[in-house]
TrEMBL record:
Keywords annotated in UniProt: Membrane, Transmembrane, Transmembrane helix
Protein name per Swiss-Prot or TrEMBL: Acyltransferase 3 domain-containing protein
Keyword Membrane: yes
A Pfam family hit: Acyl_transf_3
Statement: the UniProt record of this protein carries the keyword Transmembrane helix: yes
PANTHER family linked: ACYLTRANSFERASE 3 DOMAIN-CONTAINING PROTEIN-RELATED, O-ACYLTRANSFERASE
Superkingdom in the source lineage: Eukaryota
Residue ranges of domain Acyltransferase in the record: 145-343
Residue ranges of the TM segments: 82-104, 151-171, 183-208, 229-250, 295-314, 321-341
Species per Swiss-Prot/TrEMBL record: Iphiclides podalirius (scarce swallowtail)
Length: 353
């Protein structure tokens, strides 16, 4: 079986016709570069590799991409890095001031500047970890089980993503390909369906909150912009800080050619397409590698908007039954048509490439 035939099984095999090859240029190709200096690194490395592979294996090679070097060129400070550093320092100072204000001035007094207390780690930790007390509404107590469900799902997501860092550079690609024949391994590898739990929880909590709001005031279309704005303001500030860090300082967090190969496209695409992340439509763009994991935030925001429109405008029980039934049929049929006409796989497959 030829390399081309073996590599055609893209779902479970690497493309073995293209190799990621690392060499020490100053050691392996120094003599060749001094004699055949062309000032074009790609041509020089290709010529050096051709000589080496021909002498040892009688094979010819061709570089499909520009060589990635760990020579420090990508580590130069840029104006955007300095601007981002100023933003981060301001946030750190606000957190420092907020904590000093809470610990030494306000202490346990709730009558204080609430804007400074927003940056208090102690108060945020208490709010994050507190469970509904004895005075909480019975309905709120019934929702405590959702915290356990979220914790289990988060654990599964972490376990599913943790092996990805080891796939960047494999000693034995064939051993990794054989894992696809193990049924138990697919529970981990194709476990992206677990993320659906978060969508279900988000929809249930949205319906619960709107149901509670309807007991105090009538739901009207005027509430829709306000609800969407609150959701946007809740997610976007933290999201923006992470995006700014990815556009600037993340490339200083590691070194080496594999780091540059992984991070350089993400930094480039975040600088070019970062704006589509901030309006939550990045999950519809295939040509960007900017924070690919944030597809969930975009999908969650879109489903939230759809849910708000449905639950607010469909006021009666009958209208909601009709609307939810139609949405149920659409969500079942649309993926089927999309999968068929685009010739896609029926479920997410994390192929080796």
């Amino acid at each position: 079986m030829t390399l081309q035939e073996y590599s055609m099984r893209k779902e479970t095999h690497f493309n073995h016709t293209r190799l990621s090859h690392g060499i020490c240029i100053s050691n392996k190709c120094n003599n060749w570069l001094n004699v055949n200096a062309t000032k074009d690194l790609k041509l020089e490395v290709e010529g050096c590799l051709n000589d080496t592979f021909w002498n040892e294996y009688k094979l010819r090679t061709r570089l499909n991409e520009d060589p990635i070097c760990s020579d420090g060129d990508a580590m130069k400070l840029e104006p955007a890095d300095i601007a981002a550093a100023v933003v981060f320092i301001c946030l750190i100072l606000l957190n420092l001031i907020g904590n000093l204000y809470d610990f030494f001035i306000v202490k346990n007094n709730d009558e204080a500047n609430r804007y400074l207390l927003c940056f208090s780690i102690k108060r945020n930790w208490i709010r994050l970890t507190e469970a509904p007390g004895n005075n909480a509404e019975p309905q709120s107590k019934c929702l405590r089980g959702l915290n356990g469900l979220k914790a289990i799902t988060i654990l599964l997501v972490i376990v599913e993503h943790s092996p990805l860092t080891f796939v960047v550079a494999l000693d034995n690609p064939y051993a990794f390909e054989k894992m696809f024949d193990n049924l138990l391994y697919h529970i981990l590898l194709d476990g992206a369906v677990a993320v659906q739990t978060f969508f279900i929880l988000s929809g249930c909590l949205l319906a619960y909150q709107l149901q509670k709001s309807s007991e105090k005031e009538n739901l009207s279309w005027k509430m829709i912009p306000k609800l969407i704005l609150y959701r946007y303001l809740r997610l976007t500030p933290t999201y923006t800080i992470v995006l700014i860090f990815t556009m600037t300082w993340i490339r200083f967090s590691g070194s080496g050619p594999f780091w540059q190969k992984t991070i350089r496209p993400e930094v480039r695409d975040c600088r070019r397409y970062g704006w589509i992340n901030l309006i939550y439509i990045n999950n519809y763009y295939d040509n960007t590698q900017c924070m690919a994991h944030t597809w969930y935030l975009a999908a969650d925001m879109q489903l939230y908007i759809l849910g708000v429109f449905t639950l607010v405008l469909a006021k009666t029980d009958y209208a909601r039954k009709v609307a939810l039934s139609l949405l149920f049929l659409v969500t079942f049929s649309l993926p089927a048509f999309h999968t068929y006409f685009q010739n896609l796989h029926a479920h997410i497959i994390l192929a080796p490439e």
